[in-house]
Amino acid sequence: MPHLPLAGEGQSASVSTMRDRIKGKRLQELYDYDRATVHGIIDRAMICNVGLIRDGYPVVIPTIHGRIDDTLYIHGSIAAGNLNDLRRGVDVCVTVTIVDGIVAARSLFNSSMNYRSAVIYGTTRAVEDPAERDAALRAIAEHVLPGRWGDARQASASEDRQTRIIAISIEQASAKVSSGPPEDELADLDLDVWAGVIPVSLVAGVPQPDPQLQPGVVLPDYIAGYQP
Amino acid sequence: MPHLPLAGEGQSASVSTMRDRIKGKRLQELYDYDRATVHGIIDRAMICNVGLIRDGYPVVIPTIHGRIDDTLYIHGSIAAGNLNDLRRGVDVCVTVTIVDGIVAARSLFNSSMNYRSAVIYGTTRAVEDPAERDAALRAIAEHVLPGRWGDARQASASEDRQTRIIAISIEQASAKVSSGPPEDELADLDLDVWAGVIPVSLVAGVPQPDPQLQPGVVLPDYIAGYQP
């Protein structure tokens, strides 16, 4: 497929070399190795998807996350048990994806999306050290809603005991960034078909106070001004 | 953890019984079995995440999708090879997630997100039948951008040969829908901490015409009026 020399053609990045299991020439064309890009995508994505093998089957868990350096943190309820098997060093593949636009090419074949996506390979461990637990919970809370950590009530000892925290070491990661206008075949440029990009983005609406909010509690600036 | 009887408390749905690998009482509290809910979440989500086992490791592939009844379709380049091992009936776990809001509870412990998420277990097969291929490509194109199928140039025979289409039979699926205000501890209601929900949603911006768009090509209504 001929690629036209359009501005903003797909660019991408990766923390380190990829394992053999990421294959495909056309895929790899879009990869290079830039840790800051990978970290930026992780930090901008609202949620991540954690893939693991459970009882011989693939399982994917969508969950919120936080990051400190090259460690990703996720958490969950010990009672729910959904992360229990991640305590003991299992291999995971984590993806984060931000959709930036719908790319309407003149042909269906060249139509696609603009997006930023990171794929992370790592191994898991339970976070037990109190200082690391505190840092991990802070990273998660501040990832979801910057400013919240210093405002909301901290976890009690009982709540802390109910919380499983899993660290995922980012051993290998890659990013894929697709941006810019459609890449149509030269022969298609004369078609009477509109082509372009419809940008899409996640936006915050007006904060909805809890119906049980006490009179006099003011909306903090970090919530009033929040945007994903 | 005591749950306050708030309006709009988490509700959910599933196509059929879940395998043992989805465990956890608190998780299951949020599940029930409603095929229409699962289908609705699949259809509203921009992308899905396909988890599989490759060379003994978990791999997650974020990709666009389409659905016809209880079959999910994904596609990719044969040259890229990223879907090649899905030709021969492998187990996959597919997740789709739509984030609807950030739930700021008075305590960090009870803070969370509002979201709609579906987890699908199925097996894969290559789509070779021309009629099914056509229907699958149409489902994917119309999922990404309704109206586009009838407007853009259809795939040529050569383009069709370059395209791998994979069907995923939705054998088992579940949905989890979390909505409504925070569920705080009774003892926390008097805290001087703002609580509520920040709604978030994906919105479309102004369509950006291709710089190479020919004069006189008009913006179609289905693009001008598009919202995710």
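Helices of chain A lie at 25-29, 35-44, 130-144, 157-161, 221-224.
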